[in-house]
Amino acid sequence: MNKGYTFLLVFLLATFTHAQEEVAKEKEKALKASVDLTWEANKELSENEFIKAEADYRRAISKSEENVVAPYNLGTAYYKKESLEEAFGRFKEVGESASGKPEKHKAFHNMGNVFMKNEEYDKAVEAYKEALRNDPTDEETRYNLALAKALAEQQKNKDGGDEDKQEPEEKKDDQEEKEKKEDEQDQEQDNKEKDGGDEEKDENKEGDGEEKKEQPKQGEKPDEQKQPRKNQLSPQQVKNLLEAMQNEENKVQEKMNEKKVKGPKVKNAKDW
Asked: How would you class 256 by CB atoms within 10 Å of its CB: exposed for 0-12, middle for 13-18, buried for 19 or more?
């Protein structure tokens, strides 16, 4: 290997090393500036100056990606102001970029809280599980996970119950329509039989007869007694009425159960 090639190799290596050192210095400088802005934003937020704090948090985030405290604290500020979409975005940013388990744990815990507020209980379960993977000892997360599972199950049962209720209502309408047609057909048949009976009576009067009307066989009832009297409900109508009353009672019970569910609250968001 000649001296010229060796010199060039050493020069390139030194240049590369120097460039890396400069990049590291710039990153360190940017991180320091980002941390300083974060502290300033924290102070402003404690003084209820949200707009100034939000601006400084955003500046801190743009300075350095390594500073996960800034997006986390901004997400927490959004969460407390019920700006859930913005809060979730910042917590997700921390969950994806943080290298430490404590930071990931807090981010996923608070993502779960956002899902709970939006009544997306299945998603909340997954978020709390991810939080516990990064810190299995946190009892607040464990409590929230159990609550999310219970609410998710209750939500599934409620949705299934609504579907079951809808189907009988459709069947009930079909049954009522069918019964109406049957009643019309029976009434038409009765009218025909009545007209036929009147003609037979006229013929009997003209003939020899004092023939008696054929009596119904034992155990049978005359046709005119097969129809329910006016203002008297048929057995099927009574059954439909009882089912409607039961459905109303179930709806009232469900509303009472929903009010009871609103009582439990998730544990607080994780502060940095």
From this structure: exposed
Counting beta carbons within 10 angstroms of the beta carbon of residue 59, is it exposed (0 to 12), middle (13 to 18) or buried (19 or more)?
middle
**Amino acid type, 153:** E
CATH topology for 3-156 is: 1.25.40
DSSP-derived 3-state class of residue 246: helix
Cα end-to-end distance, the chain, whole Å: 57
pTM of the model: 0.57
What angle do the packed helices 69-80 and 50-63 form, to 10 degrees? 150
Residues contacting 42, CB < 8 A, separation 6+? 53, 73
The one-digit pLDDT tens for each residue of the chain (272 residues) are 566 667 666 666 777 776 677 778 888 999 999 999 999 999 999 999 999 999 999 999 999 999 999 999 999 999 999 999 999 999 999 999 999 999 999 999 999 999 999 999 999 999 999 999 999 999 999 999 999 999 999 989 887 765 555 555 555 566 667 666 766 766 666 666 555 555 544 545 444 544 444 443 444 333 443 444 444 556 676 566 667 666 666 665 565 555 444 445 666 666 66
**Between the CA of residue 232 and those of 74, 181, 235, what are the distances in Å?**
70, 18, 10
